[in-house]
Amino acid sequence: MSFEYLTALIAAVLFAAAPLILAALGETISERAGVINLSLDGTVLFAAMAAFAAARATNDPWLGLAAGGLAGAGIAAILGLFGLILGASELAVGFVLTLFCRELAYFMGHAQARQPGPDLGALNLPGLSDIPLIGPALFRQSPVVLLSLVAVGLVWLFLMRTRAGLVVRAVGESPLAATARGIAVTRVQFLCCLAGGALAGLAGGLYSLSVKPGWGHPQGCEGAGWIALAIVIFGGWKPVRVALGALFFAAIQVAGIALQDVLPGLSGTLFQIAPFPVMILTLLVVNLRRSAAFREAARRVPVLGRLVPRTAGGAPGAIVGALDKGF
Amino acid sequence: MDVVLSHIVKRFGPLAANDDVSVRFAPGTIHGILGENGAGKSTLMRVLCGVLAPDGGEITVGGSAYARLNPEAAGSLGIGMLSQDPLDFPPLCVWENFALGGGPVLSRGQATARLAAVCARMGFVLPPDGPVARLTVAERQQLELARLFDRDVRLLILDEPTTGISPAQKEALFAVLRAFVADGERVVALVTHKLAEARELCDTVSVLRQGRLVGSFAAPLSTPAILASMFGSQAACAAATPPPRPDPVTEAEALVVVENAVIADEKVVLEPLSVAIRPGEIVGVAGISGGGQEVFLRGLAGIAPVVAGRLSVAGRELAGRPLTRFLDAAVHYLPASRMEEGLFPGLSLLDHVRLAFPEQRDAARTIFTERCVGRFRLTNQPDSRAARLSGGNQQRLLLSLVPDDTRLLLADNPTRGLDAASIAQIWDHFRERAAGGAAVVFFSEDLDELLDHAGRVLVFYSRALVADLRSGTYDAACVGDLMTGRVAAGEVRP
Q1: SS3 of B7, please?
Q2: Distance from CA of B102 to the nearest CA of A (A)
Q3: Is the pLDDT of residue B236 over 90?
Q4: Chain B residues whose beta carbon lies within 8 Å of the beta carbon of residue A314
Q5: Fold of the domain spanning B256-343+389-491
Q6: Which of B105, B267, B269 sits opposite A166 (nearest CB)?
Q7: Residue contact B87–A177, C-beta within 8 A
Q8: Is the CB of A182 less than 8 angstroms away from the CB of B71?
Q9: Which residue of A has its CA nearest to B72?
């Protein structure tokens, strides 16, 4: 394998993971506050349409991206209104919203289908781009990669190192205790839901303006929201691990494409669907190790027992049972 | 600070949890709120600290009257509450919990400095960087107290603070409370169902029964008068005389044999343990939270798997076998969370009978009338749903569904949250079972209750069985020290 090929692979993985990272980070913020936003997939798709339409109307891809973020926040506001303020089931509302947004996106985006439009282009930062291996992967490619990596740092910083982030985690762990300490629980949850929706909206924008440019039926980002939801569980609700999960998923996708060249005899469909079962199996392994009974049994297996990892963190208290099996 | 509750009314549907209750908390006193479970004590305190809005009456704090408070307002007036289950954030660090004190959120530097200051003043030891989930109940209480003291709380409410802590830890807590009111200005409201505790600590006492204020007493507190107001005059006599402690059974052949068994629950793995239990024994399992005593019960019940070693009941080898084998061997388990683990909230009581005795489905109505209503004094209609049962009736139904030929009955906190009459019935029933040749193994968070009813005590500490004590060879202080790890088993000599 040549050096250039490896660089290209790394660049491809980072590029494919960028919108997934943003969507999964958004869901992480939302779930850390105790709000499960199941409208994620619809949000990404609708925001992709909104971003592309706005970019064409203004001829500025960055304005288009902002419009995507706004659209995402708007959809999250609907979920927050019904789920948090009016007391409907946020799971049911989120699920219906995802179906609704999908239909709405294709209906409203009909005029944009298969039209040329602006995209976010590519960076070429002199000097930095010449760093071997990672230089071209980070700095001589679409700005979405840098954007997504910066977002990981910012979300981590916000959740783990700021006072506002501490309030968010407290609300998600125990709304009851937070209320008793005078924290406005619903307001915090609503704001986190909005922020999460905005990030998912930005992810939609990254798809239609860069990763899968343009609009059509079907858009290439369909299903990304569902994957992002799974990645949040995979990453144990920790921003950095969530980002690693997104990179892992992108890596199996890219590996599939690369393997297609190596094994031309196999059907292309196989490589397209392979990432999903691989993801499910990985999720299973990651979660199994949280069970003490499993670890105790596995520890007794010679040699393999030494590989049994330590415990991982569980779901935020407010959503335990809804998404997490409570291992 | 002078705080007065006047004519407080709080209803939940048709039930009046507080019915025209008036109490004055005078500055510089420790005021006890006494009553049995379900008397409305906690509801009254939650009204006082702003978590519940009352349906009537008013709260006067330092001369100003309020129709209702919210947690933020109560906090700024200097009212703070230590809940029975500490209302904290277990996965967060100690300093993070402290930083979310109720006012503006503190930075890390501020939080650790102020936590250290409070700890030094009160004599607490709380490492700021560990997660709260690793602390004992007593330490979590200290953290909550540190948070409240830091906010300069003036009226401190404690709801059953001695549940789940050892006698030594209780003494330390009481010393802190006495020091807290020593300035003659601050007030403590202590909610408890234990008269002995109130007598030890309180200057004045208000007694609640079925939501109403039925008596107010000032020190010196007289036991018979308070008992009479707590339970009514007749029940008081029964409550005042606990039944004799069962004698240890040493003859008979062992019914349950556990040898070097490793019990692994979902989160906890116990150290290998060995123990033998004979028919007719009533065994109390003591331990503080995290000790592993609940896991031990779940292991004997077949819910938590035994991954190594031996477990046999009446000669049948059960280690690693499925739950149905345990049921075949006549092992039955009463969970602590009755509604969540024991019952089907949406099914009728008759459905529960049909599920428990599947081969007698047609006779379900007869079984219900004769067994559940006749023998176990269940007072509900057969067609009502389990979700509507009171705590006492939930436990009566669960007990009536345990077959008569049960050989090993396991009970996790069988009397938690129940009224005095139900509690007495449950212990009578356990003694009957033991007299009939079954073995009963139970855990109770209430150490006094556990020692009153057990003929033998197994003490757990830090996920290991540390002591196996026979009736007459121990007292509460000694068991308390063992279950908090203050002494190792070898140091205890009868």
Answers
A1: strand
A2: 4
A3: no
A4: 91
A5: Rossmann fold (3.40.50)
A6: B105
A7: yes
A8: yes
A9: A182
Closest CA to A119 of A12, A213, A212, A187: A213
ipTM of the complex: 0.82
pLDDT beyond 90 at A186: yes
Residues A125-143: tens digit of each pLDDT: 888 888 887 888 888 889 9
| List of residues 6+ apart from A109 with CB closer than 8 A | A49, A52, A53, A215
- Smallest Cα–Cα separation from B141: which of B128, B160, B155, B154? B160
Question: Do B100 and A178 make contact, defined as CB atoms within 8 angstroms?
Answer: yes
pLDDT band at B154 (very low <50, low <70, confident <90, very high): very high
Residues of chain A in Cβ contact (below 8 Å) with chain B? 163-164, 166-167, 169-170, 173-174, 176-183, 291-293, 295-297, 300, 313-314, 317, 326-327
Cβ–Cβ gap A181/B71 under 8 Å: yes
Closest CA to A285 of A301, A270, A300, A307: A307
Chain A partners within 8 Å of B308 (Cβ) = 300
Under 8 Å CB pairs connecting chains A and B tally to 83
pLDDT value at residue A326? 40
Instruction: Work out the average pLDDT over A61-69.
Output: 96
> How many residues are given for chain A?
327
Q: Domains plus CATH for chain A?
A: 3-319 (1.10.3470)
Which token pair is B263? 């019990």
So what's the pLDDT on residue A255?
86
Partners of B316 in the beta sheet?
Answer: B313
Show the beta-strand stretches assigned E in B396-491. 408-412, 439-443, 456-461, 464-470
* Residue in B72, B101, B265 nearest the CB of A293: B265
Q: Where are the domains of chain B?
A: 3-239, 256-343+389-491
Please judge whether B71 and A180 are an interchain contact, meaning their C-beta atoms are less than 8 angstroms apart: yes
Q: Of B301, B255, B293, B307, which Cα lies nearest the Cα of B276? A: B255
Cβ <8 Å between B75 and A297: no
Of the pLDDT bands very low, low, confident and very high (cuts 50, 70, 90), residue A319 is confident
Q: How far is A308 from chain B (nearest CA, A)?
A: 15
Q: What is the pLDDT of residue A285?
A: 73
Give A27-51 pLDDT, tens digit per residue: 999 999 999 999 999 999 999 999 9
pLDDT at B241: 61
Over residues A113-118, mean pLDDT: 90
Of B90, B100, B262, the CB nearest to A167: B100
Query: Does A293 contact B88 at a Cβ distance shorter than 8 Å?
Result: no
**B chain contacts of residue A287, beta-carbon cutoff 8 Å:** none
Minimum distance, in Å, between the CA of residue A242 and any CA atom of chain B: 19
Q: By the 8 A CB rule, do B282 and B430 touch?
A: yes
Q: What sections of B3-79 are H helices per DSSP?
A: 41-48, 71-76
How does residue B99 score in pLDDT terms, banded at 50, 70 and 90? very high
**Taking CB atoms and an 8 Å cutoff, what residues of chain A touch B92?**
166, 169-170, 173
Residues of chain A in contact with residue B46, where contact means CB-CB under 8 angstroms, are: none
Mean pLDDT, chain B, integer: 89
Taking CA atoms, what residue in A is nearest to B86? Answer: A177
Three-state SS string across A12-55, please? Answer: HHHHHHHHHHHHHHHHHHHHHCCCCCCCHHHHHHHHHHHHHHHH
- Picking from B91, B105, B307, the nearest residue to A163 by CB comes out as B105
What tokens were used for A244? 């690693």
Matching CATH topology for B3-239 and B256-343+389-491? yes
3-state SS, residue B121: helix
Chain B CB contacts of A315 under 8 Å are: none
CATH architecture of B3-239: 3-Layer(aba) Sandwich (3.40)
Q: Are the beta carbons of B30 and B82 closer than 8 angstroms?
A: no
